[in-house]
Amino acid sequence: MGAQQAIAVFGEALVDDFITEQVVGGAPFNVARNLAAFGAATLMITRIGQDKNGALVRAEFERFGMSTTGLQADVKEATGRVVVERDGEGGHRFTILPDQAYDYVEAEPALAALADTPPAVLYFGTVAQRHPRSRATLLALLEATKAKRYLDLNVREGQVTERRVFESLHQADIVKVNETELQDLFNWYAHVRLGTQQMDKPELVAACRRLIRTFALEGLVVTLAERGAVYFDADGSVVSDFNTQAPERLVDSVGAGDAFSAVFLYGRAQGWDLALTMARANAFAGAVCGFAGAASPDLSFYQSWIARWQGGDPLP
C-alpha cells in the first residue's frame, strides 16, 4: 500500500488488566494492530511509560511489524492501564485509571511522524482527549492533514464530557457509535428518546439524519453487537448487515467494536463495496470474541481472513 493510502491512528495504547492476566489494549491500538495485521500501512501515534507495561506495548508493535515513528516514551507517567472485570456472560466493566502516559502525547514528534507518513485516513477517539496535552496534539494533527476523519465515539463515564463529544463530532467525517452512544447523541442533539431495537423505524432514521446534518457528517455507523451494524449515509441511503455469527466459544467482547472499525477502514482503502465491507466487518468482529483481549495471540488468525478476502470468497 502506498503512503497516500496510509491510515493514521491517534490515541491510547494501554494494558487491559484482567487481574489473572494482562492483555495489551486500548481502542485505537486495537484498531491499529488489526490494520497492520491486514497489511495496511499504519501509523500509531501514542505515548507509553518506561515500565513493564510499556515493554508489553512495544512487543506488540514488533509482533505486528508496526512502525514506531509515532510511539513516544514518557520518563514520568506510567503506561496506560485499565482494570477489566468480566461478568461471566461475555460482558465486561472497565475502570480507567487517570494520569497515564497517553494523556501527554506531545505535538512536535506527532506532527513529524504524520509528515513522514501522510495518511488517507485519521482515526481518533475521545478517551485520549481527556487531558489538555493530548487533546491539543490531536487538534494540531487534524489541522495538519486533509485526511478523512474517522471518529470512534467512546463515551466512557467519568472520562468523556458532552462538550468533548460535541467538539469531536464537528471534527469528524465518519462517526462510529454503539447503541448506548447513539441514544446519548439522540438525547443531547436530536432531543428525542428512542429505542434501537428497530433500526429501520422512521423516527430513528430521521433522528440519525438529523445528527448527520447537524454535524455535517459523511456517514454514521451504528454497531449493534451480536445484531450487526447499520450505516447511515449523508445522501439518505442506509446500508445494514444483520448476519452475524458468534464464535464457537465466547470468551469476551473486548475489542469487537475496534475489530469492526479496522475492517471498515481496511475495506474502504481496498475499494470494497459498502455492503460487503459491513458484512466482513461484522463477521470479523464476531470472531475476535473467541479469544481474550482484542488482538489474537496467533497471527495466522489474520492470514486466514486475508486469504478469504483475497480469494473472492462470496461469504464475508
Describe what this molecule looks like in 3D:
It is a single chain. A hairpin with a 4-residue loop joins strand 12 and strand 13. The protein has helices spanning 27-37, 52-63, 107-116, 132-144, 162-171, 179-190, 202-214, 256-270, 274-287, 300-310; strands spanning 6-10, 14-17, 22-25, 42-49, 71-74, 80-86, 92-96, 119-124, 148-152, 174-178, 219-223, 229-233, 238-241. The protein has one domain (3-309): Ribokinase (UDP-N-acetylmuramoyl-L-alanine:D-glutamate ligase), CATH 3.40.1190. Helix 1 packs across helix 8 and helix 6 packs across helix 7 (202-214). The protein is built from ten helices and 13 strands. By secondary structure, it is an alpha/beta fold. It is globular and about 55 Å long. The strands form two sheets. Strands 5-4-1-8-9-10-11-12-13 form a nine-stranded mixed beta sheet, sandwiched between helices.
